[in-house]
Specification:
Helix content is 66%, strand content 5%. It is mainly alpha-helical. The strands form three sheets. A six-stranded parallel β-sheet has the order 1-3-4-5-2-6, with helices on both faces. It has a three-stranded antiparallel β-sheet with strand order 9-11-10. Strands 7-8 form a two-stranded antiparallel ribbon. The protein is elongated and about 120 Å long. 49% of the residues are buried.
Length: 874
């Protein structure tokens, strides 16, 4: 065995840097949050600090990893792997332990590689083991302090081995450590006999006909008051584990098992059962970098993609890393590329294997079996009944971790009972949470999927379940949020397997949710597939519904020509089929598109026809939608009284039918209408109620729109800090969803607020971006608003020619029906002519503006009248 002092590559520069700052190892450890033991081992080259600690060390000393000799060079990795094959994790000498201490020769050898990324867990387990032992020692009971449980291949045994070789643990359990590797079919008699020999019990004292239980009692008596740690590795049955619970009152037991229920039984009480989790992504990268440094250096991106497929499972990463290192040893790029391509297949990853040394053989496998993910997972199947096996395979149709699925979904897809799920969960293959949701680790899902083969029954059951689920919760966006990953995966499945009925119905039912979250590209992709499927079946009813949603998406992204084409095509089909409900919906959305383009007469014609049909059908939801659009148009035209009549009726219906989305929509438009009249207090009440509701249902479009409205009110009050906060929050939301119309609105609002504060350069930057976008999508009202603010930026800096040109452009592009914007354009020109000194033209334009705004009851009336009064001879 190599001595602990063996130093593959001392990190002298790290030690020199520490000494140059006059820091002790303990002081440096305190600064970065570790132990002096770790500092010592890093400086001696025994281990290498992880990425987190490397960054902290570089920051403290102001040096790079290379300057501190912290890089994982090929020389260090090769030396470390060769040296640590026989080296204990922590230094232990005869002076550290009792001279007569017993150390089981069956304790496996530790490796540094197996503990990459486990430093924190190891320290916590060591502390817990020693602390609990001290707390319970002497109470007359032998205490099972800790039971490690986790997925097959997660590294439970590696942690137990590290603890068994840890110097602090060995000093604490001064009489020694015993080790028993059980597995699914343990040779209990042979293992008890082995412990008898290790404890030097004379063979004459052990009668051959004694039962295992009697031998266990004898062992307990022989151990007596000794201070031992008994490690029971890879326990599959609680009875087997309890058989080896033979320590006396001064002993502790450490159990490893893949079964969480066994761990809870063996080590009851707070902190007794410890779940070992997979490695984090950064730790996984570090492990693969140590195992296959050449591959990580030459093909880092592909290697990281490979890491993602195995979900941080140490066994998978180790087998893959060893294989890649061997392939890279030739220096051939072709072999590395071939190896990475091979490992992109889940089946190849599962079958990838390596031989085991007899002394290091996995206790769950046969002695001559090679170690692979497939062989490790297959062991569990030996204990399944047929129904349990089928259920396990069926659950693989769900997306793997970190996705989860409900118990209800699991029962439907696996066509099993809750008892079967409990069995799978109890065996550690199916992970469960307190809220009755389950998940399958990526590698376990790959294994089960491979066994499922061509059985499409689970796929069909999943599609049926998801279709019923989405159609039953169309407007319950919070419910759909939880299952969104499964729903999207099912849509892909339906498309790939040509299940047109499921594809069409799920896509249509899920579209409102996707639109509410601003996921327009994703919604368009699935709806386009559904459209092609409906066309192939000549399903005119669903074709019109899909065209409705495609038109809606195009409108939200400012593609008005495309939106009109979709909606008009749908309307033609609906009229041909006399589908009154579809006609009503398509007319409503066509009204929305033409309204955005300033074609108000056409808009009102569409909406009034739609309203007549909606009232005839008693279609309350659609009545609300149409009333909201009519109210909005009336408000734009300055008919505020008419607007409020429409909107209050719509709000009353929305509240009555408890439609949160329509209620939110009505609150937005009502608040805007009141705000235009200067009724800011009531407007703010509506906006805040709407924002609370929008956040509750997660409707990003309404959230950003309401934030913009609240920002406008704050800006009107001169509260520019809160105004900018509202606008920036809204802008963040709409940029994520690519809602171009709202993006331009919020940018123009930010331009207004910064202009009012005299920050003209920043205002120009916001306004230029907002105007460019508004012109691109072709919304004249938004463009006009942007030009109004831009004109004032020039006017306030006395750039009068630019101001006049900007206000004239505003006047020329504003639709005739937008009386408020026409009046504001004239006010901007009036102020410009006033600055020129042309008082008569300034007064003429200003008076025309004031008269229009007064007739409308617009909030800007007072400002225009005050300005007119300030003119010479005004």
């Amino acid at each position: 065995m190599a001595k602990a002092e063996t130093n593959p590559q001392p990190r002298l520069h790290l030690a020199e840097a520490r000494i140059s700052l006059k820091l002790s190892q303990q002081e440096l450890a305190d600064r970065i949050g570790t132990t002096d033991v770790n500092i010592s081992r890093w400086e001696r080259g025994l281990t290498r600090p992880g990425p987190y600690f490397r960054r902290k060390l570089c920051a403290i000393f102001g040096k790079s990893e290379a300057e501190l000799e912290l890089e994982a060079t090929e020389k260090w990795v090769a030396a470390k792997m060769a040296t640590l094959q026989d080296e204990p994790t922590t230094v232990t000498t005869s002076a550290m332990v009792a001279a007569n201490a017993i150390y089981d020769p069956f304790i496996p050898r530790p490796t540094a590689i197996s503990l990459v990324g486990r430093g924190r867990e190891l320290a916590q387990l060591r502390g817990q083991l020693l602390e609990q032992h001290e707390g319970n020692r002497g109470n007359g009971e032998s205490v099972a302090l800790t039971a490690l449980n986790g997925l097959p291949g997660v590294g439970k045994t590696a942690l137990a081995i590290a603890l068994a070789h840890d110097g602090g643990v060995r000093r604490h359990f001064s009489d020694g450590i015993l080790w028993a590797g059980l597995g699914p079919k343990p040779n209990s008699s042979g293992l008890l006999s082995h412990w008898e020999r290790v404890l030097k019990i004379p063979e004459a004292d052990m009668a051959t006909e004694m039962s295992n239980e009697a031998r266990a009692r004898t062992l307990r008596g022989v151990i007596g008051g000794r201070r031992l740690l008994l490690v029971i590795d890879d326990a599959w049955k609680i009875e087997d584990a309890l058989l080896f619970k033979v320590g006396g009152p001064n002993c502790a037991h450490l159990v490893t098992t893949r079964f969480p229920t066994l761990a809870a039984q063996f080590a009851p009480g707070a902190g007794g059962a410890v779940s070992v989790k997979e490695l984090e992504k950064e730790q996984s990268i570090e492990l693969l970098r140590l195992l296959a440094p050449d591959v990580m250096q030459r093909e880092g991106q592909k290697a990281q993609e490979l890491i993602n497929t195995v979900g941080g499972l140490p066994l998978a990463l180790t087998v893959i890393g060893n294989y890649l290192r061997v392939q890279a040893s030739t220096g051939s790029s072709r072999r590395i590329q071939t190896a990475l391509h091979r490992l992109s297949s889940a089946e190849e990853r599962l079958k990838l294997s390596e031989p085991q040394a007899p002394s290091d053989a996995h206790s769950s496998l046969k002695k001559d079996a090679h170690l692979s993910l497939e062989t490790v997972f297959a062991v569990s199947e030996q204990y399944f009944e047929e129904q349990q096996r089928k259920a396990f395979y069926a659950l693989a149709v769900f997306p793997a971790k970190p996705n989860s699925f409900s118990e209800q979904a699991a029962l439907a897809v696996a066509a099993c009972t809750a008892d079967t799920l409990d069995v799978l969960s109890g065996m550690g293959l199916l992970e469960s949470s307190a809220d009755d949701r389950y998940t399958l680790h990526q590698t376990i899902a790959d294994y089960a999927r491979m066994q499922l083969g061509d059985d499409h029954g689970p796929h069909k059951r999943l599609m049926q379940y998801v279709m019923d689920y989405v159609e039953g919760h169309k407007k319950e966006y919070e419910v759909l949020e939880r299952g969104s990953t499964n729903i999207l995966a099912t849509l892909e499945m339906a498309h790939e397997q040509g299940q047109t009925m499921h594809l069409i119905r799920i896509a249509l039912a899920f579209a409102p949710y996707l639109l509410s979250r601003g996921l327009y590209t994703l919604a368009r992709q699935h709806l386009q597939r559904a459209y092609e499927a409906a066309q192939a079946q000549n399903d005119s009813h669903n074709i019109t519904n899909i065209l409705l949603f495609l038109g809606r998406i195009a409108r939200k992204q400012g593609e008005y020509a495309q939106a009109t084409e979709y909606l008009q095509k749908g309307l033609d089909i609906a009229r041909k089929n006399d589908d009154q409900e579809a006609i009503c919906s398509l007319l409503t959305d066509l009204g929305g598109v033409t309204g955005r383009q300033g074609k108000y007469n056409q808009t009102e014609a569409y909406l009034q026809e739609g309203l007549t049909i909606a009232r005839m059908l008693a279609y309350d939801w659609r009545i609300c939608s149409i009333l909201g659009r009519l109210g909005s148009i009336a408000s734009i035209k300055g008919n505020y009284v008419e607007a409020e009549v429409y909107l209050q009726e719509g709000l009353a219906i929305a509240r009555q039918i408890e439609d949160r989305e329509q209620t939110c929509s009505m609150l937005v438009i009502l608040g805007t209408t009141l705000g235009e009249q200067g009724k800011h207090t009531q407007a703010e009440i509506y906006f805040k109620e709407g924002l609370e509701l929008a956040k509750k249902i997660g409707h990003k479009e309404w959230m950003s729109g309401l934030l913009n409205n609240l920002g406008d009110l704050a800006s009107e009050r001169g509260d520019y800090t809160h105004a900018e906060k509202y606008f920036q929050e809204g802008l963040t939301i709409v940029r994520q969803s690519n809602h171009r119309e709202l993006t331009s609105v919020l940018l123009i609002s930010l331009g207004l607020t910064t202009r009012k504060q005299g920050h003209y350069k920043q205002a120009e930057k916001y306004l230029q971006e907002g105007l460019t976008l508004a012109r691109k999508i072709g919304v004249p009202q938004i463009t006009a608003n942007g030009l109004y603010e831009y004109g004032h930026v020039f006017l306030e800096q006395l750039m009068l020619e630019k101001a006049e040109k900007t206000f004239q452009e505003m006047l020329s592009i504003t639709p005739e029906g937008s009386q408020d914007l026409i009046a504001l354009a004239k006010y901007g020109l009036a102020r410009t002519f006033g600055a020129y000194g042309n008082t008569s033209e300034a007064y003429r334009l200003g008076e025309a503006s004031a008269i229009t705004l007064e007739k409308m009851g617009h909030r800007g009336t007072g400002e225009v009248r005050r300005w007119l009064a300030s003119l010479p001879n005004g």
